[in-house]
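As described in the Methods, two query proteins were run sequentially through the folding procedure within a single session, without resetting any intermediate state between them. The first query and its resulting structure tokens are shown here.
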Amino acid sequence: MPVRFLDGGESCLVVELGDAIDIGVNRQVRALDLALEQVRVKGVLEAVPTYRSLAIYYDPLVISRDVLKQKVGLLYGSLGSQAEARPKVVEIPTVYGGDYGPDLEFVARYNGLSREAVVHLHSKPIYHVYMLGFTAGFPYLGDLPEQLTVPRLSTPRLKVPAGSVGIGGRQTGIYSIESPGGWRIIGRTSFRLFDPFSHTPTRLVPGDTVRFVPIAPHEYAGGQLGRL
């Protein structure tokens, strides 16, 4: 799919690089985001990567949409010669089931699996962080094994604890703060994803990779953290 430039308002240019959730497209989005950060185009205020596009916020009094579009187009055309940075791998210690994962039983029953099989299938892959969204630091992770696909809750919960590990469709993710939510909760981690007082508030960034590590409840109570 050729690159598309869309208006996201009077001061936002959306650069669309694909039309599906695809790790190759997402890596292009990440590469463009990093390249734009390195060249420091005057007038660009912020860039926000998503699954398949990059939203670029700019000051229209400093740079026009047409000039920005031209610069981004040239930058995108030069990406083929750039080496991709090696992603950071983060291990997320997770207690599955029980009070920590009240929907584990449903996920197992819905897919005709045992609870142990759900834990094994969920913790086996190395997941790609496609994007952050919904709440600060919430990572959208893929790709979830097809055997674990489940519908979201018909009525979202009003409160989902921070650290809850959920499944929604073909995605999995981690609630970074306590919030409402409609994903099926299968576990919880004590790994802190968001700290507003830190110099780097989010522990994960798009392009990182994640592996869930099953642990016992007493290890969670002990405050075990993920290893970077």
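Immediately afterward, the second query was submitted; its sequence and tokens are:
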Amino acid sequence: MLDWRKDFPPGPARMEYKDAKDVVTEVDTRSEEIIVNHIRQHFPDHHILAEERGEEAGAADSPYTWVIDPLDGTANYAADLATSCVSIALAKEDEVIMGVVYNPFRDEMFVAEKGRGTLLNDRPIRVFPTEKLEKALVCFDLGYNEEKAVEQLRQAMFFRPRVRSMRILGSGVLGLVNVAVGRFDLFYHQALKPWDLAAALVILQEAGAVVTQNDGQPANYLKPSVIAASPLVYREFMEALDIYHKTK
């Protein structure tokens, strides 16, 4: 992993706009360059899908793709808010088989490999067995799709009296992996990018979370929506979500 203390010191960062609201900093591009160069050195045939540079093809017959978010929570980092992370995943065809998320501000490394469980700083972790939605601490985020962000806020207003409390971190990746370690009981989002979801997906699955799309279909890192929760909270949330859609 990157030596964040050496290469990326904390403090407000200079940022540029990729579009009307989404931003990028020098840290995003430098972090991505370091990661991609390392992968190219060791796995030259693999494909790469990275947030800043997009797709880079490897060998035509390779089933492997590295999915990289070099700095999730860029706006937080640029504002000197300590809620950002690095996310790296390896997918075989359309299935994520390995994921790593590093939070440099807490020095926390989440690691999962398909079929081998999830570790946080080398210790096994599982979702917290919260049994009732009304006891759940729920996290959600908005993203940059205005229509879906408005719908997300409408849903938050519906769910607020039905849960213990709600949070927005400004980092979808951290919102997701904090379900895996039991800090949140549920995370949901309607407009994630592949690099936001890929590593967190296998981390959650291997930690015992239920992870689906908003319609209940199995989650896929190439699809934008996700609901991730402990099993009993997930069931109640989906029942309530059905009521929400019927009463809109």
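The mean pLDDT is 92. We note this only descriptively and draw no conclusion about the first query from it.
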